[in-house]
Design goal:
heterodimer, A: alpha/beta, Pyruvate-ferredoxin Oxidoreductase, domain 3, Rossmann fold, 8-stranded mixed sheet, B: about 280 residues, alpha/beta, about 15% strand, binds iron/sulfur cluster
Chain lengths: ~575, ~280
């Protein structure tokens, strides 16, 4: 098999037991590379312990933007071998890889031996002891920098920036440790970091969860209610300190039943509102999401998906909440489901989700996931978009106001408490145009038509999907699976395989006409998703006209879909 | 539309009457609650558009639509959460929460504890009939242990829940009880509850004439104005509430806790946050 031609990048994993400082060292490495003009990605993996325990910081560096893990690791830098075998499945290494380990760490664990990677030993712990206040991780970074061709000065500066100038002694001992590590770097043929083509520019370092929070604030969110849950908590924590600076408030609820109702209440009061959760929390919110549909109250629920069902694997990703997000509500309850296509896309998708909720007066469920929510990427500074979001509200001189009036668009002006003459009761009971409870067939059907119609008549075409490439082979994917496929499509092109990639940002309502147009000329369609039961494939089959020749590819988490795996799917589909 | 400034707007109870006709059984205590709402709002001089009445599900929870005010008839048990979000987002509004003993103490029990603890400036009125009226007569957390029902033949055998004790222990700032047989008394308590900052809990004994046909008469002969005046001492209040037979009406406790009022710190352009991410 020929080696796929992906964008040149260097993938490094730092492992160590709790307290070894692996995560901080990983962040330092990313910062240092960023200061040299590189792009990068950092994902984290930890053992099951609540605190401490083994940890892995996985970093991918490139002179081009990278937003998903690569196929393999070029380097494993092990501060120790404690429990490192727990990460075996997450650490693809091969004969071309290099393992750098502490000389005192003991024998190479079996899975590392089996990888046939070259090994280089360095007495990191011993060297660190020779520096007052010297840390093993800093010695390790120094050696690593020397080996891969990253200027040691960039590491020293990144450490200084993170420690802060106020602690000159700590900065000095870190510098000493880094330089000592560099000076003692083992003799080894190491994969080199390609700095050519790296150019500094206006960049951001951001996680998917931060980008989601920021997109929401840009979209105008003024109220957040939430209950902590992995892997969504960082959205709440980030917004807890930023939202009050931008005219809003965040409240920790007693549970998700409360958080969804708090946001419905705040939105009823006129404040664009959002909550963030994961599958277990979304499950608790479902009844009240139906209330938001029936009462036409705009709210955004971000579900940062993790492996399910039940508690599942709280710290690992999966795209398996599609069914509950689309179909979970009882009754006929049309609403919107969106999904960010990458870490950076969380910004746009969150902002768009707020826009859709506010414009359509309906709940929007945004399906992010752990793999993008908790990963950090260095990206080009994104543009500051404006959707001109504005909720349609009752005008000043509304005579005989009817909250649920049947209008051409299906959206009716919403009276905000405080506005004289607009008094109405929002209701989950079937109601007439005034909002008065009714069990009449004509009111039931009239309001069902209204709520469906406002989604049917809305033009989602601006952001419903990202489409790239051309070819008779088309791939349809969604959410976080898009990024590895993007890389794979590019690599396939260099192999002469033409592929069109259609990555859906809008899951519901389905857009059969837009997809039909996008699929024009496609003879075979590959559908790629990260679920066990093929939820996305089944959803597409139910709502779209697809060509007869379909190759569904569904596989569950917790391991990420990597570009090479994605390329294999493409090659196979192109061959047969 | 009313363009008269609030200062010179005067309100009559009829101004709070909506066009929607109540579905309640004739003689249901909830009719009296509705009248006392209207009297209380008129006396407080609250413009209808400044009031929001939030409820869950149950006969009692149908009340918002019958009042000329903003309202939200939500899902079963979650009214306090919805009202908390509303009040925090819109501190300028007068937010009244209406609930039943099933809605508020059973399915919504957890929110009750946390609403008391948070002490947001809300008025929480539970129309307690010691039964699930809407679902036709099942026991609620306040039903007597020997009350015979189809779902619990011979009674539940469980001792009832003491909502006022729980409210006190959880941090409510105002605790009172009324009986719908005395509309004027209920209106007064509602006024007090709204005027007292923080979380005010008002239990209104509101008979269900259909599934508890004995209640109206029995309660009328049992309720009495609490002989001990209201207290601001939680210790004394605890003793009196623990020993109370459930029929002392009046303000039973009024504390001095500061209401919880999370609020924005600044109103910066979101672009100012970009610095967090710049490298
Ligand atoms: C989630 C959910 N479960 C059950 C019900 C059915 N239900 C409607 S009202 C009610 C009990 C109401 O009792 P209470 O709050 O005491 O009100 P009342 O009718 O007595 O005024 C129940 C169980 C529901 N609407 N929603
Ligand atoms: S069933 Fe009982 S609580 Fe419900 S309306 Fe009739 S009397 Fe009132
Ligand atoms: Mg009841």
């Amino acid at each position: 098999m020929t080696q796929p031609r992906f964008a040149p990048s260097l993938s490094i994993v730092l492992t160590g037991s709790g307290g070894a400082g692996v995560m901080t060292a990983g962040q330092t490495l990313l910062d240092a590379a960023t200061s040299c003009g590189l792009y990068g990605l950092m994902t984290r993996s930890t053992g099951p312990q609540i605190r401490g325990g083994e940890a892995a910081a996985m970093i991918r560096l490139s002179s081009r933007p990278v937003q998903c893990p690569g196929d393999r690791f070029d380097i494993l830098l092990a501060l120790d071998f404690d429990n490192v075998q727990r990460f075996a499945a997450e650490l693809p290494l091969d004969a071309g890889s290099l393992i750098i380990a502490d000389s005192g760490a003991g024998d190479l664990p079996d899975f590392l031996k089996a990888s046939q990677a070259a090994t280089a030993w360095l007495p990191m712990a011993k060297l660190a002891k020779s520096v007052k206040g010297g840390r093993v991780s800093m010695v390790a970074l120094g050696a690593l920098a020397r080996l891969i061709g990253l200027p040691e000065s960039s590491i020293v500066e990144a450490v200084a920036a993170s420690i802060g100038r106020k602690k000159p002694e700590a900065v000095a001992s870190s510098e000493q440790a880094v330089l000592l590590g560099a000076a003692n770097a083992p003799e080894a043929k190491a994969p080199q970091l390609s700095l050519s083509g790296a150019a500094p520019g206006a960049r951001w370092s951001i996680t998917g969860n931060e980008a989601t929070g920021f997109g929401a604030i840009r979209g105008g969110v003024k109220f957040v209610g939430g209950y902590p849950i992995t892997p969504a908590t960082e959205i709440l924590e980030w917004m807890a300190h930023t939202l009050p600076q931008c005219g809003g408030v965040l409240m920790q609820a007693e549970d998700e039943l409360a958080s969804i109702n708090m946001v419905i209440g705040a939105s009823f009061g006129g404040a664009p509102a959002l909550t963030a959760t994961a599958g277990p929390g979304l499950s608790l919110m479902i009844e009240s999401l139906g209330l938001a549909v029936a009462s036409e109250t705009p709210v955004v629920v971000v579900d940062v998906m993790r492996s399910g069902p039940s508690t599942g694997i709280a710290t690992k990703s999966e795209q398996s909440d599609l069914n509950i997000a689309v179909y979970g509500l009882h009754g006929d309850a049309p609403h919107v489901v969106t999904a960010p296509l990458s870490i950076s896309d969380c910004l746009l998708t969150a902002q768009w989700s707020v826009h859709l909720a506010e414009t359509l007066q309906t709940p929007v469920i945004m399906l992010s996931d752990q793999s993008i929510g908790q990963a950090r990427a260095v990206i080009d500074k994104p543009p500051n978009l404006s959707f001109g979001t504005q909720r349609l509200t009752m005008g000043a001189n509304a005579e005989n106001y009817a909250r649920y009036a049947l209008t051409e668009s299906g959206v009716s002006p919403m009276a905000i408490p405080g506005a004289p003459g607009g008094q109405y009761t929002a209701d989950g009971l079937t109601h007439n145009q005034k909002g008065t409870p009714s069990s009449q067939a004509q009111d039931h059907i009239g309001q069902l038509d209204k709520r469906q119609g406002k989604l049917d008549r809305f033009d989602f075409s601006a952001h419903w999907a990202d489409i790239e490439g051309e070819g008779e082979l088309a791939i349809i994917t969604w959410g976080s699976s898009a990024e590895p496929l993007r890389e794979a499509v590019e690599a396939a092109r260099t192999e002469g395989i033409g592929v069109k990639l259609i990555a859906l940002r809008l899951i519901a309502p389905a857009q059969p006409e837009l997809l039909a147009a996008a699929l024009a000329g496609a003879k075979r369609v590959v559908i790629v998703e990260q679920s066990h039961s093929g939820q996305f494939w089944r959803y597409l089959r139910a709502h779209y006209d697809l060509p007869a020749d379909i190759v569904p590819i569904a596989r569950p988490g917790p391991l990420p879909i990597r570009p090479g795996e994605a390329l294999e799917y493409i090659r196979k589909a192109a061959r047969s | 539309m009313n363009m008269i400034p609030d200062a010179v707007r005067e309100f009559k109870p009829a101004d709070y009457k909506s066009a929607v006709k109540p579905v309640w059984c004739p003689g249901c205590g909830d009719h009296s609650v509705l009248v006392s709402f209207q009297r209380a709002f008129a006396e407080l001089g609250l413009p209808p558009e400044q009031i929001a009445i939030i409820s869950g599900i149950g006969c009692s929870s149908r009340i918002p639509a019958y009042v000329n005010a903003y309202g939200f008839h939500g899902v079963h048990g979650r009214s306090l959460a919805l009202a908390s979000g509303l009040k925090v987002a819109r501190p300028d509004l007068t937010v009244v929460v209406a609930s039943g003993d099933g809605d508020g103490f059973s399915i919504g029990g957890n929110h009750f504890l946390h609403a008391c603890r948070r002490n947001i400036d809300l008025t929480y009125i539970v129309m307690d009939n010691r039964i699930y009226g809407m679902t036709k007569g099942q026991p609620s957390p306040t039903t007597e242990p020997d009350w015979d029902t189809a779902i619990a033949p011979g009674g539940t055998g469980l001792s009832p829940f003491h909502p006022l004790v729980i409210a006190l222990a959880s941090g409510a700032n105002f605790i009172a009880r009324g009986f719908t047989g005395d509309v004027g008394g209920c209106a007064k308590l509602i006024i007090e509850a709204i005027r007292t900052p923080g979380f005010s809990f008002l239990q209104l004994l509101s008979p269900c004439v259909t599934f508890r046909p004995d209640q109206q008469k029995q309660w009328k002969s049992t309720v009495r104005t609490a002989v001990v005046p209201e207290t601001d001492d939680p210790g004394r209040a605890a003793r009196r509430l623990m020993t109370d037979d459930g029929f002392n009406v009046g303000v039973l406790y009024r504390g001095h806790r500061e209401p919880y009022r999370p609020h924005p710190i600044a109103d910066l352009d979101p672009a100012r946050l970009e610095a967090e991410f710049e490298v």
